[in-house]
Amino acid sequence: MSGAVVCVDVGSTYTKAAVVDADDGDLLGTASRPTTIGTDVMEGLRTAVAEATPKGATVIDTLVCSSAGGGLRLAVIGNEPLVTARAAYRAGLSAGARVVDVRAGDLAAGDFLELAAARPDVILLAGGTDGGDETALRAHAEALAASGSRTPVVLAGNANAAADIAALLTGAGIDTTRVANVLPRIGVLNPVPARTALREVFLRHVIAGKHLSASADFTRMVKAATPDAVLTGVELLAERTGADLLVVDVGGATTDVYSVLTPDAEREGPRAEVAGTAWRSRTVEGDLGVRHTAVGITEAADEEDLAASWDLPEAARLRAANPAFRATDPADDAELSALAARIAVRRHARGERIGGPTEPLRGGKDLAAVSLVVGSGGILRRDPEAAVWLREAVGADTSGGVRPPKDARFAIDADYRLAPAGLLAANGHRNAAIGLLESTSF
Fold this sequence. Notes:
Elements: E1 4-10, E2 14-21, E3 27-34, H1 41-52, E4 59-66, E5 72-78, H2 84-94, E6 97-104, H3 109-117, E7 122-125, H4 135-146, E8 153-155, H5 159-171, E9 176-178, H6 192-209, H7 216-221, E10 222-225, H8 226-241, E11 245-250, E12 255-260, H9 265-268, E13 280-285, H10 294-303, H11 312-321, H12 334-350, E14 372-376, H13 378-382, H14 386-395, E15 409-412, H15 418-426, H16 430-438
Parallel strand pairs: 1-4, 4-10, 5-6, 5-7, 7-8, 8-9, 11-14, 14-15
Antiparallel strand pairs: 1-2, 2-3, 11-12, 12-13
Helix pairs in contact: 2-6, 4-5, 8-15, 8-16, 10-11, 10-12, 12-14, 15-16
Pfam families: MutL
InterPro entries: ATPase_NBD, MutL
Organism: Glycomyces rhizosphaerae
């Protein structure tokens, strides 16, 4: 062994560490410790790393992803709710962001006040195809510059107007990163430049700005938002298996769903969506965490007409009031987790609601051809029956207005390999990432 790479995920509830052989991707050790967010996250990080690292191992690199402190909160501004705003929304989700506000169309001063009230960490400003109408994009930029906002902006709109707008925003004291248009042509979604820029803003402003640690080492080690790392790992897994995938990550603060689907030739033809089709996508459900937002699960279950045990609301309140709570028997968390997974997958499959609660759902996904469903999250890893109840929650759910996986195999990311694989692949250790995934049970 020439050396080992330490991969760490600092979550809202737990900090997970995985030590991987840099050559062949062998998993050398793992550990999980409570995140010490109340003091300094480096305390829990150092403890987890020490427990996971085998004696005598030579560590050549340490890579960290984090969603602690709420992760990346993103606001989106676009020309039209169903075109550029939607394209930007999808790009933001693919960057691991939690989209907390979407604005489009004719905006007044009140819109920018409401946007500020959502407390975004960054604003993704889009609008117009390259060479198309510049009016709305320029108007939004002028209003943003005049609003007094100091929230960093990633500008991913009409290339013809981008230079002028970047200069305007920078002159107004707004840190602005200019990238290629997220929707250069109707029907063509180009999320990668915006995704990369959002990652950099996350590292530069969010991790440093949340003061999670007094040590500069933490800011230096963090390479990505956790959902961004997981999505990279999911994409690599899909590439290696050639399968249509669905990954359900049930966490303490959110439940995230990732899908990699084979493009449908018919939909990619003349009837393709004007905002482009995201065949590799992620949705985040900020009201479906099994600790911090557990009450949201029971409320969402009521809205979905899903049956629940009579004492589940009290169990949810207990967990929300004490996020550090850890059930003695993993089965005690199974019902909440299964409901979170079921509702999150329904929402992922139904599509997105852009532009407000009265807008129709758009961009639904047919999951019937998915051949592999992977469950992730601390509760699933600790529960030996997780694959069984995940299959019942997701694979057998035919009443939610979606087409669930029909003949899928269900597996659990028991050693928590997806996020480490994503960190490795994105930071110069692709062979190790491939080896790490190829040695899994899924």
